[in-house]
Automatic annotation (TrEMBL):
Keywords: Glycoprotein, Membrane, Transmembrane, Transmembrane helix, Vacuole. Residues 110-303 form the Peptidase M28 domain. This is Vacuolar membrane protease. Pfam families: Peptidase_M28. May be involved in vacuolar sorting and osmoregulation. It comes from Undibacterium seohonense. It is found in: Vacuole membrane.
Length: 769
């Protein structure tokens, strides 16, 4: 038994009971964020039907359907037919739209339909709820999770609403086009559709996975009333305001971004689990989680009914509109309160902490200097474990480069478990070693000092994240207060149970957050969830030290090793069943009479990509991408390819004139083989301003000017741009690149291995005289 228990162990039964309780709390926390099991009974006419939704999703994901493809046209025709069969009158909103940053443009075909409410005839604006999802997909995907499942949920919501008495407000459904290439459909609707003025609130559904909880991750600003309504409409919604704080710092956009920037209030929803499906051939209907699909459909219907009967003018932003701090917690639902209360709450919790510290200092001689030392050691161990964890994972990438291609974090959750167990052991042993000089309670108060600092920083600067430090710290301090009032011995089993009672809130709250951070950020940022985990461990330092006194650390090390082994097995099995497709790029430069094969993979699979012989080299290709392109520094495997006769894009200078101190050039660009998109770059100088099809793309001077045109009409587009009048002749060039994801009919005798994602490009370079 000495293998399991040290000689100092006194409370073996209590120790096992506490461990079982901790595991139960973790399980409870993780399960609380999972979608409920799918319903088995037959739904009523006014309810979401999972079976009908699954059948419809299968229909629109049979083929890959990027914008302007044949599959895209089939999906649009199917959706129009389904809406018409419901007795609705859908419209196709055709418009040429540009992304606000000027980097993407295209002809889009949105599907819009309106379900009239009881107040439809009243002369008022902002009276409609907009349900939003996009029906296009990326070229490499079947678009089931991103975003077909949401499109079908909208169809099911409209069907269910039509089977009941009308709501007070209108319901507008926008199935947007061109989201994947630059939010073009949403931008076009916001810019030119007459119904835009009627939109009082927008509910956007988009996904970065095919399973897990459907989370509300982004509200509009001044969201207090929105969050209160969300809590009322969907009591079990999974959300927290820290997601919003993190998302604001990331360079990500969805269709919701367009409406948020227009000042339209709304909420943004997504499922993010199983990222292996995201933008890959595994984004199929049969791999969508039925539980998640049902949760999304039911949630959408609940939201439509709730906001469909609200006074939508109440949600319009005003100068004094307040944000809320909010978080989901089992049995409590969505807890929320005004963000301006965060600092007051921080002061109350800080005062409680000072009071508990003072009581402890009087009773057990807790020392201020030792507690400060505990705070410093806590910061050092957080930084140390976080850094070493990230470096260890980076070493794994170096030793096994195949892991760089690993797209799926969910099979790697065993790795996360192993990392967390190992981190807990290292942290616990470090704290236990420090007890030679600093008492466990002093170490705990040191950690609490760090928490109080973080609480005040977040309450002031990032109030949406303040709940993470406020409520766990408050619960722990109340338990410590109980210990002082009951005068329990620090190393007794009863004290351990009280420490656990105080930490229970933190365990339940942190368990899903650590997992979701790992899913959202991936293993390339493994240090982030580990740091969050160590932060929470700091609050239960006395309990952790007590457990390691009752049970040998080697038990946890063995458990961590088993978790790593399971992670390796699960990852290998997953990638054998779901191999990552090889990418292959064919480049033709007819002007230079050159054609290339390019492979962007770090490891070249010569067995599959047989055209790359032993002479193939890995290098940059600025002649293809342009020296000023960000991708010109990327390294590709390069080898010669045959000329298969694909036409290059046409670039023709229409006019060139001096206007004041500027030179205006008008160019016409077209794609003879109707490419999926045409990238246009102007190289060798500054572009002062530019328009495409009379859409303003840029008004400030840019050195590296680039834009893309998607779904280009046969007649092409007109680009009008200004440069400096004294720009040297022939120093600037227009580079146009056609990109094909489906082999054009003009390609002759091009043999491509099966199981690869092929991209074909042709390049034209034209001097600006």
């Amino acid at each position: 038994m000495h293998f399991f228990f040290p000689a100092t162990a006194k409370h073996r039964f209590s120790m096992f009971a506490i461990l079982i309780t901790i595991v139960t709390l973790v399980y409870f926390g993780l399960e609380s964020v999972q979608p409920p099991a799918p319903l088995t009974e037959t739904p009523k006419a006014d309810q979401f039907s999972l079976s009908a939704a699954q059948a419809q999703l299968q229909k629109i994901t049979q083929d890959k359907h990027p914008i302007a493809s044949a599959g895209h046209t089939k999906v649009r025709e199917y959706l129009l037919a389904e809406l018409t069969a419901m007795g609705l009158t859908p419209e196709v909103h055709r418009t040429f739209a540009s992304f606000e940053k000027g980097t993407a443009n295209g002809q889009v075909q949105n599907i819009v339909v309106r379900l009239a409410g009881r107040n439809h005839s009243q002369d008022q604006t902002k009276r409609a709820v907009l349900l939003l999802a996009h029906y296009d997909a990326v070229p490499t995907s079947f678009g089931a999770g991103d975003d077909g499942v949401s499109v079908i949920a909208i169809l099911q919501t409209l069907r269910a609403l039509k089977a009941q008495a009308p709501l007070a407000n209108d319901i507008i459904a926008l199935l947007s086009d061109g989201e994947e290439v630059g939010l073009l459909g949403a931008s076009g609707f916001a810019q030119s559709h007459p119904w835009m003025k009627d939109v009082g609130i927008v509910l956007n559904f988009d996904n970065r996975g095919n399973a897990g909880p459907v989370m509300m991750f982004e509200p509009s600003a001044g969201n207090g009333k929105l969050i209160a309504s969300l809590a009322q409409a969907v009591p079990g919604v999974i959300s927290n305001s820290m997601m919003y704080e993190v998302y604001k710092a990331l360079p990500n956009d969805t269709d919701f971004t367009v409406f948020r920037k227009q000042g339209v209030p709304g909420l943004n929803f997504a499922m993010i689990q199983n990222i292996s499906s995201y933008h890959t051939r595994y984004d199929r209907a049969d791999l969508i989680s039925p539980a998640s699909q049902q949760q999304q459909g039911q949630m959408m219907l609940q939201l439509a009914r709730h906001f469909g009967n609200q006074d939508l003018s109440a949600y319009q932003s005003s100068a004094n509109a307040e944000d809320h701090v909010y978080f989901s917690f089992p049995l409590l639902g969505l807890v929320h309160y005004p963000a301006n209360f965060a600092l007051t709450l921080a002061l109350i919790i800080a005062a409680l902490s000072v009071a508990v510290f003072w009581m402890s200092r009087k009773r057990s001689q807790v020392r201020i200097v030792a507690s400060l030392g505990g705070a410093v050691s806590f910061i050092l161990i957080i930084v140390g474990i976080g850094f070493l964890t990230q470096q260890a994972w980076n070493l794994v990438f170096k030793l096994s480069p195949a892991y760089l291609e690993m797209h799926d974090q969910d099979t790697g959750h065993y790795y996360l478990l192993g990392v967390l167990v190992m981190s807990a052991v290292i942290f616990g042993l470090w704290q236990r070693w420090l007890t030679r000089w600093i008492r466990a309670k002093e170490l705990a108060f040191g950690a609490a000092m760090v928490w109080i600092i973080l609480l005040f920083v977040t309450s002031y600067r990032f109030p949406g994240a303040s709940f993470l430090f406020a409520w766990p710290l408050a619960a722990v301090m109340l338990s410590w207060l109980g210990l002082e009032l009951m005068k329990c011995k620090d190393d007794s089993a009863s004290s351990a149970w009280i420490y656990l009672a105080g930490g229970a809130f933190a365990i339940i709250l942190s368990s899903p957050l650590v997992l979701l951070f790992n899913i959202a950020l991936g293993f390339h940022s493994l240090g982030v969830p580990v740091i969050l985990f160590i932060l929470f461990l700091g609050l239960v330092t006395p309990l952790l030290v007590w457990i390691l006194q009752e049970l040998r650390a080697r038990i946890f090390l063995i458990a961590g090793a088993f978790a790593f082994a399971f992670g390796a097995i699960a990852t290998e099995n997953f990638h054998q069943a779901h191999p990552i497709p090889k990418q292959l790029v064919y480049i033709a430069m007819p002007q230079q009479q050159h054609s290339f094969w390019l492979a962007p993979q770090r490891l070249l699979d010569r067995k599959t990509l047989t055209m790359f012989n032993t002479d193939a080299i890995q290098r940059t290709v600025p002649e293809v991408l342009g020296k000023e392109s960000a991708r010109s520094e990327w390294k590709y495997w390069v080898t010669k390819a045959p000329d298969v006769g694909i036409a290059a894009p046409s670039v023709r200078i229409v006019s060139d004139q001096i206007l004041g101190d500027q030179r205006e050039i008008v160019a016409h660009i077209s794609s003879p083989d109707q490419a999926s998109n045409v990238r246009i770059q102007i190289e060798g100088g500054k572009v002062l301003s530019a328009k495409l099809q009379d859409q303003i793309l840029s008004t400030a001077a840019k050195d590296k000017w680039v834009t893309s045109v998607h779904a280009m009409a046969k007649e092409g587009v007109t680009l009008r741009f200004q440069i400096a009048k004294d720009q040297a002749p022939n120093s600037m060039k227009i580079r146009a690149t056609d990109t094909f994801y489906v082999m054009p009919a003009s390609a002759k005798n091009l043999l491509v291995p099966t199981g690869v994602d092929l991209v074909m490009q042709t390049v034209t370079l034209v001097d600006i005289p």
